[in-house]
Design a protein that fits this description.
It is built from four helices and four strands; from the N terminus they run ααβαββαβ. By secondary structure, the protein is an alpha+beta fold. A four-stranded antiparallel beta sheet has the order 2-3-1-4. A hairpin with a 6-residue loop joins β2 and β3. α1 crosses α2. The longest helix has 13 residues. The radius of gyration is 20 Å and the shape is elongated. It comes from Lentzea kristufekii. Keywords: DNA-binding, Transcription, Transcription regulation. InterPro entries: AsnC-type_HTH_dom, Dimeric_a/b-barrel, Tscrpt_reg_AsnC-like, Tscrpt_reg_AsnC/Lrp_C, WH-like_DNA-bd_sf, WH_DNA-bd_sf. This is Lrp/AsnC family transcriptional regulator.
């Protein structure tokens, strides 16, 4: 690791010096701006993009979940429960007909089915869920800012 990143790992884009060169500022300016962006919560971390298959997660699905009664206590408890499951990679609290969307993955279809039947369907607050298998996934890791109002 080159440079002081305040206890954070080096950004995947390269060293502070590399980033400074790419954006056309002095390394000290780049380091200070990066530190300020982390402090303000603009930069929340640095992540590796790992193929799910390398983690033995050959099947991915989005599970839309409805819970009742719809209260903050139930929402918070279910969110914490779902986030703690090893098969779950993301939990989204939603507005609309579904209360949650869970991004889950498993080794194969049988294990995904076991997760749904043995874990999710056993929760008393769940009144329904619908599963969509993911065939392909494309994620933008560098979205451009949208214009302000």
């Amino acid at each position: 690791m080159q440079g002081d990143h305040g206890g954070h790992p080096r950004p995947p884009a390269g060293s502070n010096r590399d980033i400074a060169r790419k954006v056309g500022v002095a390394p000290s300016t780049c380091l200070e701006r990066t530190r300020l962006l982390r402090e303000r919560g603009v930069i929340r971390g640095y992540h590796a993009d790992i193929a799910p298959s390398a983690l033995n997660r050959g099947v991915q699905a989005l599970v839309s979940v409805q819970v009742r009664p719809l209260s903050r206590t139930v929402i918070d408890a279910f969110k914490a429960f779902a986030a703690g499951l090893p098969e779950v990679t993301a939990v989204f609290v939603m507005a609309g007909s579904d209360d949650f969307v869970i991004h889950a993955s498993a080794q194969d279809n049988d294990r995904l089915h076991a997760f749904l039947v043995d874990r999710l369907s056993q929760r008393k607050e769940i009144v329904g869920f619908r599963t969509s298998i993911i065939f392909q996934h494309l994620a933008k890791h560098d979205p451009a800012p949208l214009p302000g109002a």
